[in-house]
Amino acid sequence: MNQHRPRGIVIVALLMIVFGMAEVVTGFTHNFFGLSTAKVTTSAYVGAAIGVLYALAGLLILPMKRWAAPLAIVFLIADIIGRIAMVVTDLYPVDSFKQTLAIIMGTSIVAIFAIYISLKWSSFS
Fold first, then answer.
1. Half-sphere exposure at residue 80, Cβ-oriented, CA atoms within 13 angstroms
2. To which H or E segment does residue 28 belong?
3. Within 13 Å of residue 69, how many CA atoms lie on the same side as its CB?
4. What pTM did the predictor assign?
5. Tens of pLDDT along 66-104?
6. Is the dihedral of CA 106, 76, 90, 28 positive or negative?
7. CB–CB of 40/32 below 8 Å?
8. How far apart are CA 54 and CA 34, in angstroms?
């Protein structure tokens, strides 16, 4: 295992794990700091699955293995697609500015993490 992990990658990985776990909890509680998901079983499972992908992407990049970086990016892309699907199917309601802004910002953060990992490709061995 590569003993030297760039600090940025460690921070991004830890944030992805924390944000992913928060998304899993949100999937089942349907509420996170005043933001909500639809209170149906489908929303719970899809939201939790998206959160698991997010957290797994963070876990994948921690060992700094080159094979894991593209898989993490695929998981993040799946997260983005899942979020869009949840909006389209009204599992993420967009009934307020706060809710809409949170969805846009959260999805943007996932995309930024994916871009960051791809830009740090040479750090993975």
1. 16
2. helix 7-29
3. 17
4. 0.88
5. 999 999 999 999 999 999 998 999 888 888 898 889 889
6. negative
7. no
8. 21
